[in-house]
Design a protein that fits this description.
255 residues; alpha/beta; Rossmann fold; eight-stranded mixed beta sheet; 8 helices; Esterase; AB_hydrolase_fold; hydrolase
Length: 255
């Protein structure tokens, strides 16, 4: 396995390949990290995928890793949706770059943990080229989640620095990427979910509810959607979940 630190456009990333395959077109995964994390924290996913013959791109999200601007946790949390939407936008650039450099066979798969899983679900609503997805403790109910986040801040007596008009504009923008509102856009593409039932950061129930609703759109291909739930797990993916996700991505990208 070879790990290279690169910058594509303005995006710092880790580019992981099996040995001697740096310039060979391969099935490829773009994998997004979580909130306040960084690209290096998902190298165990990349290792498993590279062992299966895949190329993996691990980008740093806006304001994270090498792109950090030294914000504290509150400041970065207030820009959560800006970060998610930036990652969705940058995914289009990464896909074009993979093709431009002749590095990808077919179209890339996409996955991520926590904020990266949230990013993945939003991307599925706008990019029909995504061939397969793995959502690790993510959520697709963008509008509901944003409203809950704002209510949580306000319940602590924290005044959000947005006007009512800006709030409405943000929610209508998020609605464009909301998986609950755009289920038909998944179009039977393979998707794996993992979520711990005790997750206090990204609640389990809304994601499980989305999965059950999405299943209705997969009646012709029920094997292409699956959800692993772990009763005792919180906001940390188990080894079992990580192995299942990488197996899922490899299976559908290597066909």
């Amino acid at each position: 396995m070879r790990v290279q630190r690169q910058i594509w456009g303005h995006i710092p990333l880790l580019h992981i390949t099996p040995d001697q395959c740096e310039k060979v077109a391969l099935p490829t995964v773009v994998f997004f990290h979580g909130h306040t994390s960084a690209k290096e924290h998902n190298l165990h996913y990349a290792y498993q995928l590279a062992e299966k013959g895949l190329r993996v791109i691990l980008p740093d999200a806006h304001l994270h890793g090498e792109r950090s601007e030294g914000l504290d946790n509150v400041q970065i949390s207030l820009r959560f949706w800006e970060i998610v939407l930036t990652s969705i936008e940058e995914l289009a650039f990464l896909q074009k770059e993979l093709h431009k450099q002749d590095l990808v066979v077919g179209e890339p798969g996409v996955g991520g943990t926590s904020m990266g899983g949230i990013t993945t679900l939003g991307a599925m609503t706008v990019y029909p080229w995504i061939s397969v997805a793995a959502v690790m403790m993510g959520a697709g109910n963008y509008v509901e989640l944003a409203q809950a986040q704002m209510a949580q801040y306000e319940s602590r007596g924290f005044k959000l620095p947005v006007s009512e008009e800006e709030r409405e504009r943000m929610l209508s923008t998020l609605a464009i990427f909301d998986s609950v509102q755009h289920q038909a856009k998944f179009n039977g593409r393979p998707i794996y979910f993992w979520h711990g039932e005790q997750d206090m950061t990204v609640p389990f129930e809304p994601t499980y509810r989305l999965y059950k609703e999405l299943k209705k759109h997969y009646e012709a291909v029920p094997e292409k959607i699956t959800f692993t739930r772990e009763r005792e797990a919180g906001h940390a993916v188990s080894r079992k979940g990580m192995l299942e996700a990488t197996e899922w991505l490899a299976k559908y990208l290597s066909n």
